[in-house]
Amino acid sequence: MGSDEISSGGIPRRPGLAGRLVIVTGGASGIGLATARRFVAEGARVVVLDRDEQALAQLPGEVPGVAAAIPCDVSDPQQIERAFAQLDERFGPPGVLIANAGISIRHRFLDITPDEWRRVMAVNLDGVFFCARAAARRMVGAGRGVILVTASTNGVVGHPFYADYNASKAGVILLVRSMALELAPAVRVNAVAPGYVLTPMQRAEYTDEMLDATNAKIPLRRHATPEEVAALFAYLASDEAAYLTGAVIPIDGGELAGGLASHD
Predict the structure, then answer these.
(1) Can you tell me the distance from the alpha carbon of 207 to that of 210, in angstroms, rounded to the nearest whole number?
(2) In contact, 226 and 33? CB cutoff 8 Å
């Protein structure tokens, strides 16, 4: 195996990723940050879109080799169009979009305010739609592309305290399947449905006791790492997954096997 087939981290590179333009939304933290790192290691040209300008300023130190970091709130279609116009000028059409940006608020269904509902939907569902549409238009013109979306096991089964988040992720799943049908054969579209992942967002919402109680219910007895989700994205974006489209793939430690996500 040649040196060009091994990443800087010693990981064998997935075929078809070296040199490709990969856009990662919400790429300044959590799963998105781990995914940006993974694709840089794969030899891709990685552009991160994120609304957190402070985190974006630190990104070159966090992910050496990242091609660009562009401030963008994915809930605003005008900001998305401006970001993609910058990409057109600097890089050309994207090869891979990873629509990962998302937010959640832990609250009871009866306490969700109209503003909270709209904000969660605007980021988690509208943001995926606007980003995917912008990327797909360019990919169809180029004759190829891959769109990958961060869904959730919360979009597959009910889960208390996250009704708005759950609804947004269920919408994402059907959006992915619909896009896969309409954009084939030029563009493949798949979703990854993580279960519990130990990210800053998760840490902010769960106490240590809540994390321990959750781990006890997961068959593999732990949360996923962001790097494990990033590895699945790398596979799905690569030529090895050339016959996968319209799929929603759980990465949940066995959580859905027994419906554990439906328990408090």
Answers:
(1) 5
(2) yes
Query: For the chain, how many residues are written?
Result: 264
Q: Which of 175, 154, 27 is nearest to 101 (CA)?
A: 27
**Residue 264 forms part of a structural domain:** no
pTM (predicted TM-score): 0.93
**Would you state the torsion angle of the CA atoms of residues 239, 241, 244, 247, taken in this order, to the nearest 10 degrees?**
-130
* Highest mean pLDDT out of 12-16, 24-28, 207-211: 24-28
Cα–Cα distance, 59 to 257 (Å, whole number): 37
Q: How far apart are CA 103 and CA 197, in angstroms?
A: 14
> Would you say residue 262 lies in a domain?
no
Give the pLDDT score at 66: 97
Indicate whether 144 belongs to any domain.
yes
Residue 162 known to be catalytic: no
Catalytic pick among 162, 165, 235, 243: 165
Q: Looking at residue 230, which CATH number applies to its domain? A: 3.40.50.720
Which parts of the chain are beta strand (E)? 21-25, 45-50, 68-71, 96-99, 145-150, 187-194, 248-251
Give the 3-state DSSP-derived string for 198-228, with helices as H, strands as E and coil as C.
Answer: CCHHHHHHCCHHHHHHHHHHCCCCCCECHHH
Count of the separate structural domains present in the chain:
1
Any domain includes 259: no
Structure tokens at 142: 């180029």
Expressed as residue numbers, the domain containing 17 is 3-249
**Residues 201-236: pLDDT tens digits?**
787 878 889 899 989 999 999 999 999 999 999 999
